[in-house]
Structure formats: C-alpha cells, structure tokens
Amino acid sequence: MTRNPSIIPRAKLRTALSLLLVTGSLLPYVPAFAEVSVKDDIGNTVKLAQPAKRIVSLAPHMTETLFAAGAGGQIVGTVDYSDYPEAAKKIPRVGGYSRFDMEAVAALKPDLIVGWQSGNAAAHLDKFRSLGYTMYISQPNRIDDVASEIERLGTLAGTGATANAEAKRYRAKLATLRAQYAGKATVRTFYQIWKQPLMTVGRNQIISDAIRLCGGDNVFGKLEQMAPTVTVEAVIAANPETIIASGMGDSRPEWLDDWKKWTSIEAVKRDNLFFVPPELIQRHTPRLLEGTEILCKHLETVRGRRGK
C-alpha cells in the first residue's frame, strides 16, 4: 500500500507542532523593535525607532537617574563627577558637563544623548543636534519632576518596569515628607551654594522647591536666575533665620562659619548654620529626597530654638 505523503502520523504531527510553538511560529507576530517617544523637560518630543542601547550622559545627575531607571548598563559615556552609583565611576569620560570631547562622543556611536539645559552650554547642545544626534534635555525644577524623569528615561531605554517601580517608590517617600512638614511655621532661609562668588538659589531652582516643602521661605526666592550671585550686604538685609550651605564635598565647608562675624543676622544669633551634603541636595536625582529630609530636620531645629 502506498503511503499518502500528505498524511502525517499523529506522533510526528505532535512533534512538529511542539517545534513550531517553541520557535514562536504559531504565536501572534510581535515586532522585534517598537518605537518609543517621550517629551523632555523643555517640551521637545524625543523619538527612537527602538529603545536606546548606547547612551551618552552629559551631566552627573543624568547618569545617576539613568541608573535609577534601570538603564545604567546602556550608558557608554558620561562626564566628570559622575560618581554614583559605584558602577558609574567605570564609565568612559567624554569631558566635563561644561565642555565635551566631540570626537570621543562620536566614537561611542550613541543612539541617545541626554543633556542638561541649565548646566550644559547651549552651543554644545545645538552642535550635537546639528550632527544628527537624538537629544533628551533634562531640567527638573520641581521635586515631583524627578519621578517623571525616571519614567521617561525608562521608556527611552526600554527599562520601563524598573523605572516605574523606582518612580512609585520616590512618589511614596515624597508624599510622606509632604505630609510630615505640611503646615509648619515658616522659616526664612538663605541657601548658600558657594562663597566666592557668593551664590544662592533662585525661584526656579529645585532646591527652592525643597525649601518650600520643608516650610521654609527662600529669602532670594523671587530672583529668576537659577544660581544668582548676591552680596553679603543683601544677606544681612534679608536677615534669614537660618543659613544652609552645601559646598563641594562631603564635609561642612569652613566658610559657613565666616557668617559668625555678622552678629546682627538672626541665623548667627541662634547658631542656625547648617550643612547638607551637595550630592544629596544639588543633584536632580532620587537622592534629592534624602537631602530634602536633612534640610527639613534643620528647619525643625530652627523652630525648636525659637524663644530660647
């Protein structure tokens, strides 16, 4: 009897079906790559044909936030002072946030460059755009913006699950801080970034938002500049109840105590001179909440010293 070649024995049919299922041939077609799109902090739509695999970060805070979003492994180049988390220290450098080695960036063949509006020179960012690079520009001016940035970077990097979980954790901690310090008595606050020149934070700087959350009133909070230069005379006239300083390193800057000579300032009278580590308060990253919590505790100390 001649076997009909079109009839497959059941055992072989089951085997063939199993192989097809394993290889996905019977599954619905899913594109290998999917376009991703977000809006950056300056309102530009950032589109990628597929999630970014090679990212260059032009600011330390962006490097840290990319790691928080689960995209640390995709960063192929970054700038000086990108030192958190520990793995960030091993990423090749392409210069500092205010100067770049364009050839070094080009050699890395990034499919996404993340920049910093108020930290990177506009001319440098424009140059990258003119060379055809896809750019995402960061400028979170409110504490809430950090969570959204984590999510957007996760979308661009294809690490949405990690990014969304981190953003959720961040928002929960932020809500706890807000509830804890809501309705607190106002504390007139001078935040000092540096001594020479004497620099503070203006209305749109994210640290001003942290001061507000803690129940503080930034005495220079009406200034439009991100990091305005002020005079000693202006600080004396503003008469803050506390002076908070950051500086550059992990230790309290020596120049914070230089204010002690100005005994007419309320902050000096009550010894309300405090320090917050700059990496916890001056970077727009998830660790900003750690710095904000320290700041809030300092302002609470100020309230406790009233009337003594």
Topology:
Layout: H1 10-23, E1 36-39, E2 45-48, E3 55-57, H2 60-68, E4 75-77, E5 95-96, E6 99-100, H3 102-108, E7 112-116, H4 122-130, E8 135-138, H5 145-157, H6 160-181, E9 187-192, H7 206-213, E10 216-218, H8 232-238, E11 242-245, H9 266-269, E12 273-275, H10 278-281, H11 288-304
Parallel strand pairs: 3-4, 3-7, 7-8, 9-10, 9-11, 11-12
Antiparallel strand pairs: 1-2, 5-6
Helix pairs in contact: 5-6
Overview of the molecule:
The chain has eleven helices and twelve strands. With 308 residues, it is an alpha/beta fold. The chain folds into two domains: 36-168, Rossmann fold (3-Layer(aba) Sandwich); 185-304, 3-Layer(aba) Sandwich (Rossmann fold). The strands form four sheets. A four-stranded parallel beta sheet has the order 4-3-7-8, with helices on both faces. A four-stranded parallel beta sheet has the order 10-9-11-12. Strand 11, helix 9 (266-269) and strand 12 form a beta-alpha-beta unit. Helix 5 (145-157) runs antiparallel to helix 6 (160-181). The relative contact order is 0.11.
Task: Spell out the key features of this protein.
single chain; 308 residues; alpha/beta; Rossmann fold; 2 domains; four-stranded parallel sheet; disordered N terminus
